[in-house]
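Whiteboard transcription, Tuesday session. T.W. wrote the structure tokens on the left side:
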């Protein structure tokens, strides 16, 4: 390229339009024996590239050369511009004092338009350092000059920066106005990197306004734009971590932050960004229940921020460090004082996190019995309950609930918890993806626990039932948002099935499949990401639970809801017009016993494991003592509905002696049982029979069932492909799916049934307009669920219940394929005679042969819902 003045000057805006091309051209300039002025520009461009996308040490070398060359060229404005760029790099390198001194010289050397650009960059540095008032002042001085010079690019940058500072101070409306104005300016430029940054900033604004699906969509769009420019995205990772945590995806946020830190270390990137990523990782680890990792990350972040003279950031990192220490079990007067000091400093900064720190100080003081001191801190935190974003209001209501508990006011506790959970409900229903709705409930776990404790201490069994229902299986209260006819999502689902099927075939042949597994993971990430973009379209959060309505609909049946308060199981037995409470055992003991029983059932799925039968039956007796206690003697003679908490979803309830001979069904909540009970079957619905590949028996029950039903749609062989199966399932009255089930504890919505063309996953079922009224899943592990959030369950069964399915039969353990066939035939015989799923399953178990394998097979299956 020629080294003409105009072409060289074009390199500076190009570094944020096409960074790679700008770098290449700058290197060409330096090889062409340029003048000191042009060489200064080229070194500055290379310094910016290395500062933002490469090695900060190399960046400083280039920028110092650029500064010296500008001085040789005797251009005061050129020198001022480079001094500003160098100041940014020095601050990012942790040399805050040197960086600010460089800015002082730059402001002094520059004039007019150039000085305005220097002021903008110093404002950016003030934001990095957490000096928000100073940042706003420098932007205020710079903007009129930039506008007068008709400098659209730098005006848009200044507006974007001012908006970001407003967000840090909680002024969302002001930020939104500035982002909108900046976006209009960016559309008139070719600054592709700046445009990507604007999309990222809009994502941050959407998050601050409470729209998590929009935030995730915009951040993903920004990542795609950065990817085309092949530039690292450390700030994007920091922001995505914040949004992921708010969506209940803390493990994903921790993985993102750690990966970004590793990349930053590998390229020698900015220490300021490393400190911010460490803080993001600490927050994510704390939210993910890993306090030790949170302590380690936060301690390093505090040290780095201190060395970088970034007091605002250091104070936020100290808050996370104290929270993690408390989560690890530490309590002391020193921690109360530290949390109070952090709260005071955050309040002086105008940080929205100040109430969170005050709540922390109050909570620690309460644990130490310092009631008066706790009241002071909690009163400060409680002020946030009336305004601000949902997390701040929930913090305020949590503080108010703790104040009421300390004062002995059960009514006050329940009022505060109700208001706080209402805030979270409103927020939860903005989310369209069932996974996000389930995971975000963890943010209300403390309020729910406080309400249950108050109900147990100050109210009767009916009140405890109402509060148990208030925060149980909320993901089932409304169907997830229907995925749009998104060609990209449908393409990813199709590609996922193909890759998964190829990987399964390769595993069966013993071939290595790392490339297929990598592609499968990539497609899973893409599918999850696209479903997370869905916004909730359900107004409010459904009808409140009505205990009277439940008692009216039960008739002769009994419903036993198991509530867990402070680790102890309480049985709330509903029936005969009243609710009674019986004491159970420790939840931890019951969970451990359920795992032992599951291990025994796995052994009993094989004939040689029959010696385990007495041990499994003994486990059933112990489970009954722990989970039903004296309530077992008051179940009456009619049907029984069990409503367990998420932690007990693996209990084989039919194994318990008091339940073996009963018409028994299981439901995630009493509310979901009521909805299932009142769901009408589709008019003119037809049975659908599906036989997937690879079953040991070949799905031997399906041909016999086809003869029984006559008019049933039968899908097998190549006809049993996912698109056709979904088409036939939509609106069916009865569906029997004989297909291998795979449960994914790491990602439950990728739990699957194996069809001819690959896996039929939960995300596929969520595309149905109405899932079948009754579904029978005859293979292993189809009833296995993952417990997430406060008390939510994700998996095949819970995906179907909100979509119009009133009843499901599925197994929670591996089963013997041969023993399943007679059980299924007997089950359908009962259905053909007009019985419900629960009645037919009870009779089918009774009709099984008496050997251990057939008994274990019957115990492994359960009827869910009320059809």
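and on the right, the sequence the group agreed on:
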């Amino acid at each position: 390229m020629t080294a003409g003045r105009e072409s060289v000057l074009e390199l500076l805006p190009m570094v944020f339009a096409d960074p790679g091309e700008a770098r290449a051209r700058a290197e060409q300039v330096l090889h062409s024996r340029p003048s000191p002025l042009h060489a200064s520009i080229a070194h500055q461009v290379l310094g910016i590239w290395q500062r933002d996308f490469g090695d900060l040490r190399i960046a400083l070398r280039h920028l110092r050369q650029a500064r010296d060359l500008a001085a040789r060229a005797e251009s005061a404005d050129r020198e001022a511009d480079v001094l500003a760029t160098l100041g940014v790099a020095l601050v990012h390198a942790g040399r805050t004092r040197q960086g600010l001194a460089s800015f002082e010289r730059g402001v002094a050397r520059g004039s007019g338009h150039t000085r305005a650009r220097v002021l903008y960059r110093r404002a950016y540095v003030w934001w990095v350092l957490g000096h928000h008032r100073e940042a706003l002042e420098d932007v205020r001085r710079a903007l009129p000059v930039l506008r007068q010079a008709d400098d659209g690019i730098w005006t848009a940058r200044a507006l974007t920066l001012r908006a970001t500072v407003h967000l840090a101070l909680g002024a969302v409306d002001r930020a939104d106005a500035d982002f909108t104005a900046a976006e209009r300016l960016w559309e008139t430029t070719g600054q592709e990197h700046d445009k990507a940054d604007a999309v990222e900033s809009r994502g941050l604004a959407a998050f601050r306004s409470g729209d998590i699906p929009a935030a995730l969509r915009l951040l993903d769009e920004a990542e795609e734009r950065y990817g085309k420019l092949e530039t690292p995205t450390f700030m994007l990772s920091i922001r995505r971590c914040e949004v992921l945590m708010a969506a209940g995806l803390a493990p994903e946020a921790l993985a993102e932050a750690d990966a970004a830190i590793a990349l930053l270390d590998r390229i020698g990137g900015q220490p300021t960004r490393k400190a911010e990523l460490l803080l993001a990782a600490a927050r994510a680890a704390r939210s993910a229940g890993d306090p030790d990792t949170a302590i380690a990350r936060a301690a390093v972040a505090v040290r780095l921020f201190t060395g970088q003279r970034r007091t605002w950031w250091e104070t936020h990192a100290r808050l996370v460090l104290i929270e993690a220490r408390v989560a690890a079990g530490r309590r002391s007067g020193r921690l109360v004082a530290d949390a109070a000091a952090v709260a005071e400093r955050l309040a002086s900064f105008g940080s929205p996190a100040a109430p969170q720190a005050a709540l922390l100080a109050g909570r620690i003081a309460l644990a130490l019995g310092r009631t008066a001191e706790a009241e002071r801190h909690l009163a400060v935190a409680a002020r946030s309950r009336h305004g601000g974003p949902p997390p701040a209001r929930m913090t305020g209501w949590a503080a108010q609930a703790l104040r009421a508990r300390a004062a002995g006011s059960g009514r006050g506790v329940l009022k505060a918890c109700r208001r706080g959970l209402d805030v979270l409900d409103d927020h939860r229903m903005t989310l369209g993806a069932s996974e996000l709705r389930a995971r975000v409930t963890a943010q209300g776990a403390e309020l729910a626990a406080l309400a249950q404790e108050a109900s147990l201490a100050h109210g009767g069994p009916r009140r405890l039932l109402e509060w148990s229902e208030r925060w149980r299986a909320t993901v089932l209260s409304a169907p997830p948002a229907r995925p749009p006819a998104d060609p990209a999502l449908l393409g990813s689902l199709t590609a996922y099935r193909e890759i998964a099927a190829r990987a399964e075939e390769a595993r069966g042949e013993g071939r290595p499949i790392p490339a297929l597994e990598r592609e499968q993971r990539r497609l899973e990430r893409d599918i999850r990401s696209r479903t997370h973009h869905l916004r909730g379209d359900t107004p409010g959060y459904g009808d409140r639970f009505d205990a009277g309505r439940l008692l009216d609909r039960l008739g002769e049946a009994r419903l036993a809801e198991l509530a867990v308060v402070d680790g102890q199981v309480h049985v709330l037995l509903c029936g005969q017009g009243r609710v009674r409470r019986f004491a159970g055992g420790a939840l931890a003991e019951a969970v451990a016993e359920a795992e032992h029983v599951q291990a025994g059932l796995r052994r009993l799925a094989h004939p040689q494991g029959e010696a385990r039968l007495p041990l499994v039956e003994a486990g059933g007796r112990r489970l009954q003592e722990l989970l039903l206690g004296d309530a077992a003697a008051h179940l009456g003679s009619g049907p029984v509905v069990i409503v367990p908490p998420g932690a007990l979803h693996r209990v084989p309830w039919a194994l318990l002696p008091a339940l073996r001979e009963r018409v028994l069904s299981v439901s995630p909540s009493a509310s979901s049982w009521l909805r299932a009970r009142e769901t009408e079957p589709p008019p003119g619905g037809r049975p659908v029979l599906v036989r997937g590949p690879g079953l040991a028996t070949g799905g031997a029950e399906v041909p016999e069932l086809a003869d029984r039903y006559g008019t049933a749609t039968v899908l097998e062989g190549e006809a049993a492909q996912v698109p056709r199966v979904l088409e036939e399932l939509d609106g069916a009255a009865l569906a029997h799916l004989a297909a291998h089930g795979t449960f994914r504890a790491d990602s439950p919505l990728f739990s699957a049934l194996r069809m001819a063309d690959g896996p039929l996953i939960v995300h596929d079922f969520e595309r149905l307009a109405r899932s079948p009224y009754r579904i029978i899943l005859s293979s292993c592990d189809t009833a296995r669920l993952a417990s997430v959030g406060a008390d939510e369950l994700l998996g095949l069964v819970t995906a179907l219940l909100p979509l119009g399915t009133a009843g499901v039969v599925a197994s929670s353990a591996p089963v013997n394929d041969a023993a399943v066939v007679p059980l299924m035939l007997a089950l359908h015989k009962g259905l053909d005679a007009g019985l419900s799923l629960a009645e037919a399953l009870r009779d089918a178990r009774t009709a099984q042969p008496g050997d251990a394998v057939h008994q274990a097979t019957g115990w492994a299956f359960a009827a869910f819902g009320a059809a």
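Someone added at the bottom: The longest helix spans residues 487-508.
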